[in-house]
Amino acid sequence: MTAAFDVTDAVVVVTGASRGIGRELAMLLAEAGAIVVPTGRTTADLADLSVEARYRGVQLHPVLLDVRDVASIRQTVDRIVATHGRIDVLVNNAGLGHAYKALDVTEADWDDMMAVNLRGVFFTSQAVARTMILRRSGRIINISSQASFVGLPDAAVYCASKGGVNMLTKALAVEWAEHGITVNAVAPTFVYTPGTAPILDDPEKRAKVLAKIPLARLGSPEDVANAVIYLATPASRLVTGTVLVVDGGWTAQ
Questions:
Q1: pLDDT, tens digit, for every residue of 153-204?
Q2: DSSP string spanning 167-191?
């Protein structure tokens, strides 16, 4: 690997890393040589994550964090900087993906998803950016979704939240460029995780999803991780305010 694509010893915070895409992101970034600080909401989740890390021969530095709690975000960021000296890369992965029919959405459903998918992304970025500004360097990478570009049934709240992530990415990229901070997003297609299993384990639903993807395959956590690693490295130093779509061609149609 050339230096331009190297994340060795970069301090990378991955939110929502106890399961799904975030869990694999943390593992693959650690395997690539980064100092990975994965976050999760419970000690049980983080303990389970640590067990897998030991099995895979990588070291993680997990911390508790609830991105719905702004005070928790600020305290956790301060703790990470005190421990590791800096945060080079923030990956805003924490998110909810519940399916709700639009006519059935309650105020609580809306508020809960927005609190994690959009509000949490903003306030975590804000807290980390304050530390990056002092060093005039940093990478912020938001995990969006192809659902930020195309409407999906039973996903009005989710689509709205991820569309918000895209515009937040652009606005922060413009505002923080003068401080040497890049802000980008990765928007994957369906990736097989415990969260998407109820859809993708259904042969009929899986076939419908694959029919929308010209490359005719689902995304993998590694596909997402590769995009994140690119945006985390000097190779992407002139890339900011961009949403990198990793969808096998779904949104090109």
A1: 999 999 999 999 999 999 999 999 999 999 999 999 999 888 888 889 999 9
A2: HHHHHHHHHHGGGTEEEEEEEE--B
How do residues 191-245 score in pLDDT, each as one tens digit? 988 888 888 999 999 999 999 999 999 999 999 999 999 999 999 999 999 999 9
What phi, psi does 111 have (nearest 5°)? -65, -40
Tokens encoding 47: 């303990």
Which sequence positions are flagged as catalytic? 158
* Cα(17)–Cα(44) distance, integer angstroms: 13
CA distance 60 to 198: 30
If DSSP codes are grouped into helix, strand and coil, which group holds residue 37?
Answer: strand
In the chain, where are the structural domains located? 3-240
Q: Which CATH class is domain 3-240?
A: alpha beta
